[in-house]
């Protein structure tokens, strides 16, 4: 018997069939997050099937003063998880209901975007999903959510209608604009792109009508970077808002559906999507193809599965370390300088650096991060499995940021700061005071340990 045993027994007795401890079937799965940077060895994993299970787990954690960590996909995992922690694994909160008239999806908190899009697509709808199909709606939306239709429709957080959640006393609540208690209205404001303020059990989110999806990606050898960057930079200055595109320099895997001469090398990668057919894509395509002949071009009519594959995100767990930074329009020279500083594919360099075109005039409701912070988003990521690797990655990431200085807004994008608990500067002092007040009401003892929670890391602009 250890000190841990009685608490574990209480959890098992109260939540039969939902509790996993080391050695149980499913424990390794629940503690193997998509970002594999840090070991997870929680004393108790709770895999709830209902909101009531979540509430009971939180009540017990509060009673025994155990910190609570919530995990869906684990894409956002960013710190070691020790044996005192109660880890709530939301993967079994997996229901999806589409309201075809209201254009909304109501989803369990563990649902990945692939499941939402599979259910919505037959109705001509898609979610405001991002590049990876395995990222969950919850963590993505609570961090803002920059997806493939972001230019025309804005951030996912702006489409978040309501959240059912559990506060730190274990009470079930509903955050919505018309909630009767002011704190639940404030909770929705925080969940919208800023910080979770309780354990979400389900979310209601808007869907996008997609009349004619066109999508694809182009690849060039790395030496085409200057020509492609100049053409893309010029084209994005006035391209129609139904086109969202992303320019990257990335290391291709040694195998895969790529020409042999590109496998295992650094390549220039341009991916894009238009929900309204090819018309506006043609101008962008003409510019970049005219600048340098691509070695690969997959452009064409697409579906949700094609959309989920164009960014070439790794399908397996990676110990990722990254930065995300909002930029003003960079010159073509700055793009080349940033991408060169990333030293993609070289020892100690990045696996990938990308620049997303996010310029958007979409309307947005009140929320901590519902308005697009800037017209471009810089994201760079390295593989860093240990402290040494993380130090090296941070040095390299610092050089990328230095190269971005002419366009840097100084504002971080925490969702893209993989494998780190926070981001230096993301929110204004007023927003930070407002979210602290919400947390003071709902979780005064800070029972919940959310990753990249601005209040945990005090990342004021
Ligand atoms: C390969 C890859 C591609 C990505 N692409 C994009 C992209 O295109 N656009 C974009 O905006 N972001 C993108 N991201 C970033 C991603 O949105 C964040 O990593 C996000 O935190 C992942 O959410 P999750 O729920 O899947 O992960 P998890 O690790 O399960 O959760 C991350 C955090 O979200 C919060 N959270 C999750 N579930 C709950 C809950 N039920 N209640 C309260 N809080 C909760 C917690 O703070 C948790 O620590 C990408 C990340 C990766 C690794």
Automatic annotation (TrEMBL):
The keyword Flavoprotein applies. It holds the Pfam family FAD_binding_4. Residues 38-210 form the FAD-binding PCMH-type domain. Keywords: FAD, Flavoprotein, Oxidoreductase. Gene3D superfamilies: 3.30.465.10, 3.40.462.20, Uridine Diphospho-n-acetylenolpyruvylglucosamine Reductase, domain 2. Signal peptide: none annotated. One of its GO terms (molecular function) is FAD binding. Residues 19-42 are annotated as: Disordered. InterPro entries: FAD-bd_PCMH, FAD-bd_PCMH-like_sf, FAD-bd_PCMH_sub1, FAD-bd_PCMH_sub2, FAD-linked_Oxidoreductase, Oxid_FAD_bind_N, Oxy_OxRdtase_FAD_BS. PROSITE patterns: FAD_PCMH (PS51387), OX2_COVAL_FAD (PS00862). Its cofactor is FAD. The keyword Ribonucleoprotein does not apply. It comes from the Bacteria. Belongs to the oxygen-dependent FAD-linked oxidoreductase family. This is FAD/FMN-containing dehydrogenase. It comes from Mycolicibacterium rutilum.
